[in-house]
Amino acid sequence: MAPAGGPRAKKGILERLDAGEVVIGDGSFLLTLEKRGYVKAGLWTPEAVIEHPDAVRQLHMEFLRAGSNVMQTFTFSASEEKMESKWEAVNAAACDLAREVADKGDALVAGGISQTSLYKHHKDEARIKKLFRLQLEVFARKNVDFLIAEYFEHVEEAVWAVEVLKEFGKPVAVTMCINPEGDKDNVTPGECAVKLGKAGANIIGVNCRFGPQTSIQTMKLMKEGLGAAGLKAHLIVQSLGFHTPDCGKGGYLDLPEYPFALEPRLVTRWDIQKYAREAYDLGVRYIGGCCGFEPYHIRAIAEELAPERGFLPPASEKHDSWGSGLSTHTKPWIRARAKREYWENLLPASGRPFCPSLSKPDN
Amino acid sequence: MAPAGGPRAKKGILERLDAGEVVIGDGSFLLTLEKRGYVKAGLWTPEAVIEHPDAVRQLHMEFLRAGSNVMQTFTFSASEEKMESKWEAVNAAACDLAREVADKGDALVAGGISQTSLYKHHKDEARIKKLFRLQLEVFARKNVDFLIAEYFEHVEEAVWAVEVLKEFGKPVAVTMCINPEGDKDNVTPGECAVKLGKAGANIIGVNCRFGPQTSIQTMKLMKEGLGAAGLKAHLIVQSLGFHTPDCGKGGYLDLPEYPFALEPRLVTRWDIQKYAREAYDLGVRYIGGCCGFEPYHIRAIAEELAPERGFLPPASEKHDSWGSGLSTHTKPWIRARAKREYWENLLPASGRPFCPSLSKPDN
Amino acid sequence: MAPAGGPRAKKGILERLDAGEVVIGDGSFLLTLEKRGYVKAGLWTPEAVIEHPDAVRQLHMEFLRAGSNVMQTFTFSASEEKMESKWEAVNAAACDLAREVADKGDALVAGGISQTSLYKHHKDEARIKKLFRLQLEVFARKNVDFLIAEYFEHVEEAVWAVEVLKEFGKPVAVTMCINPEGDKDNVTPGECAVKLGKAGANIIGVNCRFGPQTSIQTMKLMKEGLGAAGLKAHLIVQSLGFHTPDCGKGGYLDLPEYPFALEPRLVTRWDIQKYAREAYDLGVRYIGGCCGFEPYHIRAIAEELAPERGFLPPASEKHDSWGSGLSTHTKPWIRARAKREYWENLLPASGRPFCPSLSKPDN
Amino acid sequence: MAPAGGPRAKKGILERLDAGEVVIGDGSFLLTLEKRGYVKAGLWTPEAVIEHPDAVRQLHMEFLRAGSNVMQTFTFSASEEKMESKWEAVNAAACDLAREVADKGDALVAGGISQTSLYKHHKDEARIKKLFRLQLEVFARKNVDFLIAEYFEHVEEAVWAVEVLKEFGKPVAVTMCINPEGDKDNVTPGECAVKLGKAGANIIGVNCRFGPQTSIQTMKLMKEGLGAAGLKAHLIVQSLGFHTPDCGKGGYLDLPEYPFALEPRLVTRWDIQKYAREAYDLGVRYIGGCCGFEPYHIRAIAEELAPERGFLPPASEKHDSWGSGLSTHTKPWIRARAKREYWENLLPASGRPFCPSLSKPDN
Hints:
Chain A is α/β, with parallel strands linked by helices. Chain A is built from 14 helices and eight strands. In chain A, 39% of the residues lie in helices and 11% in strands. In chain A, 61% of the residues are buried.
């Protein structure tokens, strides 16, 4: 049931963040729907919103139930070659699906745009901004609640995206896919954050490409950069759901396991509770995930921060804190696992003794 | 569209197997729906069929789309303490959901029963059989296409289950959760298979608790046992979706990672293609998965055996064989991954250098 | 200083074992002297006793100092192709060196013969026994204290060796290089032990090719075999100094790391204390090492069993029990390592995250 | 045989380096003699030169035979608390032993001093220099060929050491035990090198504490620093013989495996050939080892650089290049290992599947 006054009466993203609330993002659509059979790896396009809307709706529902306060539209990323004739219909349908599910709970709809494939060929600001504006028009028409510019390797292009999105008059979040070494032009995370803040972004951070530990490190640097420049902005982190201590600046794309053998790197729910805690302690208040994040990972964020937020997400009706649901198991050695100390200290084995623990990135 | 004559005109399980066809099972409901937020670990009960039928239907749909020819009903396992008042309504609803989805494709509905929690306390054949019969009545009423007795640690109890299920007059499959060492009473896999065959089971094999490699080893022994006894039965394998070279007779339950830190052990699609090939070469024709098997793992079985079967599953419209969808990637080192040789030989890293590769089982 | 009455007054090997004393063997000559620059890998011959007697004497001294009660002669193994013209002079010199050092402490001299390269080509008992007898003559002339037939893959050939060595009238020990699966002709460890006992061997066990854990497992089976046959014999174990959980029947020769990259598998002193304790608890009283065992590993045997024996070896003047020598370190976190609990529970890292933990044996 | 004119006619260290020759250092005395039973871990003192001169002489001989051009005196390091009454006699005897062996081949004698334990308590330049001078007097009396100040964590103290050693009028080498992050006062490797060069050191580099890869990285920075400052100095690297990718600024002392469970980290001969090549390519011409380096590791340096130097070391008579000695093995799969490509590409397994690949440093 939507609260009286309807969904539009919900608090906006900035109202929440300004009030110090935690906003929980959602997780992986591309990789998760690839595993469910609705997205093609390599292409990574969202035509499922039209072809198989039930599958997309269901995933939105799972994230909502897990505690997400944001339904990101499952739309095309801004690569001209991908933007076939059907893109506009797909993106419009994606907005409707996100809105439909958001209205079933306490979630906002965010329209998202990404870096373009144009940028690496020529840095034609006008042409790239035009491409962003094209997408923005659909989001404006569908009246999303706020906007996210995400997955940028070059801060210059991210700034352009922010500038376009600001035209809409709604709050703008922006996330780069960089590690502590900085963006592809060697602009440090701190400098990136400052440039984005000056461009008017309301919420600044990182998403994708790097695992939880790396993402937290980058956020520290972004925060320091903003602080040193005397800029105020909310912080967002939407990490990869895989451990990537061995990847270089290119991120997990360059790891030999990408994209079809990443399983051994998949994070556990306990890894994510640690990540949520570290993000919170750092002052990040918009915490979500990216590729690899399944609904139970989002629930782990919501559970870790339940003491601060004062409530658990709906999906916690099927999950007892820190494995305590095992306390009635018939085997005593499994009952012994029903506690936080056990899971926090476990070093999980891969079951793959012929495999290494780290890889050398290609490239 | 159901073929003319309606779903009842589909070929039955034995018709298919007798004709030498491959039958593809489905995958994990409990663990998969736990990660989606609909099943509680520890309890592992299927009330979601009533509480969240869309979520259960969606998972059935994904397996169907991935190539499953069997929709197993997502019903209570036969533990008296779990069989609360609502079990009958849940099981009936589960049958309806399975049938609804099966009728959208070339799949049969299988009703399943499991070992009881009674058996370990007392071996009261009458009481246990009564419990099995109670469940069978619902399956009979809902007219499932065939029956599966699964997840048995003791062959004696499995024989009782087969005896009850045979009363229904439909084909009966039976799978034990044992490794090459044999059942909990040290009955070897070969002897187990023989006892089950003599009890009238039409399809015999293993499911759950052990990873692909171990399951194939056990199937070799079952096949040899049946052969030596001059018995004919079809073979079924529904392995765990985790690597478990280090687990003892108790299976993955005894591994310290169970059930909340199994991620690094999760099998890749390539592991499953290998498993499907080995199972096929061994003569197993009913090939599916158990806990840990996601839709894309089932699709991997269907893709591996597409040459023999002559067709691909619907979900392969979103998956190019052996990673060939990467052949148009902009980065040359990622294009280099677009081939079978690459994925077959990859030794995927865990990204966890502080973790071991094997664990010592508890107990 | 030799005790009054001279070295010949020392207690013999059987006197010691019959009295329940622990006899500590020595360690690796071939691999250790290869690393020191005096033995050629591949060839593995002992001409260093003539070319560089100081180097060989020094290694004998180190083992004596570490607690060895046996100086094995560093002589040619019985491969005809290796037995060049100089072999007799080398073997005689090896006996003199062993005796020289043995007389400086409480050690006996043991002459050793190994399996022949002939056996795999033809099983010509007469010819093989002649080759053994040829070597025995030197040992007899040099009056070694007892004899060891070691490194046999086929129990038949080991029996022939025992039969020849018994002609000398001194005690005979015999060790096979087999794992729990048995010898190359599938004779089980228990059956091997029985055949060797019936052939007159006084001390029976295993040496080389397999790591500590495997060797202890094989000894359990040998002991059970002897017990079941009602035979009495003393037990000997001289394990490899490398961890080999992944090797097949061919032993560590078949591991890809043999012989030039075995370093990561090298056992620690704590591994050897565990091995010594397990051997002792099993009833083995002649405990030593083979390839890979350095002097400090032998000292670890002597230290582990010091409570039972009532004394420490000379080299313990430079080694405090269980790392307690670290208790005065300036860094508190290193002082924290000065205890048994620390070293017993440590899981040492390889520092090689790009390497696997196990290998697949060649062959 | 010493060349005509006696050992003093040998070319000095600077003559060699100025001529572009490679000078090969020696390896580990403390850790190697600890394993042989003559040095006590924790204390790490060299009284063995008096107590067991044969053992020390033998190790010098092995390094000489492996190709070392430098015999470092096995003397006390400058910790006041260790400098008991006997230190002067020990150090004098150590000089005699080193000279005795050096005169048997083409090697020079180097007297060495190390950082003091005083420095961390108070930075009393006069008192510390007095302690250095005290030791220098013995080296001067024994007329060593050159001097090495080694194992310094603070460049300030290293500078003092160089200043004292320069008083003797012989060439001075200096090595710090730092990683690319710099010394304990955060002076970068480049700055350290410059300070040492300005203090008059003729040869500058690193030793101990960090494995080959880290040491090479630090040398790159030192070389860059010297180059940028327009300073000329010869370069020296004497790395640890263990892999330590996971250690922090404190080096391997802080790894949980130090000092009694470092075995799995031990470098292979192939690792050292790679290290020697990288050092050479970087322009380092004095290449040796530190803790963990056994004689065969030194031989690996000499073999790798034999093409440049034009000769092999004596110990290569017992070692065929790149495993080629295996080419006559009876087993074809072992013959297949007789080539460079095999060993260069091998990823050696630890045989320890329950252990991690990396550790977290203490402290």
